[in-house]
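Thread amino acids onto this structure.
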């Protein structure tokens, strides 16, 4: 299904000055492919944020924060890019720097230039997250702070570190994505080609070389999963981006 851009945001009212409150291609497929196929969109918001209310204090200001895409998947031992969105009702100006206290095993890198707030509307900054190979897959809560002239706004979000996750990104270069899994393990591919405001991102369609399986079109922030039940080497290409190829090596 086509994915609509996420629009839901969680409001935060903060007191003035409040503190931190991826190719070796060739050969035929060696085994038949079988397993369950599931395609999922990722436009649903997660109940990972909290609302802070000032109780009508005159010195308060309004700021809404979100992290796009809201599914927030990070491959185990890999990296993923996100967009942090700050929304002002019009009473904020100046630069707001983004930061976070990363849990052990996760590394956060924000754009070095502060998010420029000027008037009402959405203002965004980039975020790259990487995970270590030895950390445990699972859900990690991370509090992101926006610090600017009027104080500090903080918001907590869920990030999901997932094993056997392949991130599809258009890079303009030849890319070979290799993954080794055990029979019975699901593999998930997710399309993450840029910030939420980019309507011109190419879709991805994964086509396996025996012709019996494909993902269908994966638009921005959509994902597709398949469980490989038989050992073998499963090679594929991206019909939406011919520079992207890959293989899944399934072991007993």
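Threaded sequence (252 positions):
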């Amino acid at each position: 299904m086509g994915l609509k851009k996420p629009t839901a945001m969680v409001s935060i009212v903060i007191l003035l000055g409040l503190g931190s409150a991826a190719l070796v291609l060739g050969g035929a497929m060696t085994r038949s492919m079988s397993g369950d196929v599931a395609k999922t969109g990722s436009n649903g918001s997660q109940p990972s944020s909290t609302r802070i209310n000032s109780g009508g204090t005159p010195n308060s200001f309004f700021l809404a924060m979100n992290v796009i895409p809201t599914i927030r998947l990070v491959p185990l031992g890999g990296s993923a890019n996100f967009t942090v969105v700050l929304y002002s009702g019009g009473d904020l100006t100046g630069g707001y720097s983004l930061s976070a206290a990363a849990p052990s095993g996760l590394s956060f890198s924000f754009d070095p230039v502060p998010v420029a707030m000027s008037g009402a509307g959405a203002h965004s900054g980039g975020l790259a997250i990487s995970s270590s190979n030895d950390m445990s897959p699972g859900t990690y809560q991370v509090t992101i702070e926006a610090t600017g002239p009027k104080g500090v706004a903080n918001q907590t979000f869920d990030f999901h570190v997932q094993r056997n996750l392949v991130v599809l990104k258009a890079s303009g270069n030849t890319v070979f994505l290799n993954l080794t899994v055990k029979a019975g393990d699901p593999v998930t591919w997710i399309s993450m080609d840029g910030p939420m405001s980019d309507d011109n991102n190419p879709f991805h369609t994964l086509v396996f070389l025996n012709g019996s399986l494909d993902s269908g079109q994966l638009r921005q922030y959509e994902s597709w999963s398949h469980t490989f039940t038989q050992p073998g080497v499963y090679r594929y290409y991206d019909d939406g981006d011919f520079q992207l190829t890959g293989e899944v090596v399934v072991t007993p």
